[in-house]
Amino acid sequence: MSGIFDELKTRVRPLLEAHQLLEQKVRIKARPLSTEEAIGNPEANDFPLQKGKERLMQAEFKGALGQAYTDQFGDYEGTMGEILEMSLSNNFRRAIFVAAINAALRHLGKIDRTIHCRDEGPALCGKQLPAFIRERHGTPKVALIGLQPRMAENLAAHFPLRIVDMDPDNIGTFTNQIEIESPEMTHEIIEWADLLCVTGTTVVNDTIEPFLGSKPAIFYGTTVAGAAYLMNWERFCAESK
Q1: Tens-digit pLDDT profile for residues 121-136
Q2: Which one, of 32, 34, 42, lies nearest residue 67 by Cα?
Q3: Domain limits, the chain
Q4: What is the largest CA-CA distance in the chain?
Q5: What is the C-alpha separation between 145 and 189, in angstroms, rounded?
Q6: Domain 121-236: top CATH class
């Protein structure tokens, strides 16, 4: 497990302690959402959630909701204190932690946009990304880390683009005439790029370290909401709730 989780725990604990949320017997419930619950009925059918490879874990904390993409999912219930003491040794446990801090920070009013967009939301989100990048970063060469199909097609229309993805079914295929490359190419792609556009799922699967500090990065999605706030990372999530 990377040191980023120690840092996240160190930064979130004082916020929870200040509001006596560790000591209270607050129950956190996380469950995998069905595709319909998570993203509704977008027009396309090529999102990871729809392919059955990942699902959203959802935590509810004092009425606030937080989510995390994961390929290891199930139910969990416990206190925030117990979650902070948990050994984050696999994707399931890290998803519990990430979803829980997203819900807790949403409850505290520190973050918003913690619920995945639905229906036409992913398409609308992808259309807004190029302008977001151009306003903040000019016209960079972009590395998209984690295939989000609508983001890929919009980035390809505006910037030099390379894409890396962990799904073996995607590697070697093409989207918008751009080959999807394997994780083994990550270092080369980072060296090539001026800007990294990174899925928040890299927090849960503990692959985030290579994308921190070497190049400017934008982290996208609901999963990374709490971590981005705590670590002061730039985040894009235009249509989430």
Answers
A1: 888 999 999 999 999 9
A2: 32
A3: 4-107, 121-236
A4: 54
A5: 9
A6: alpha beta
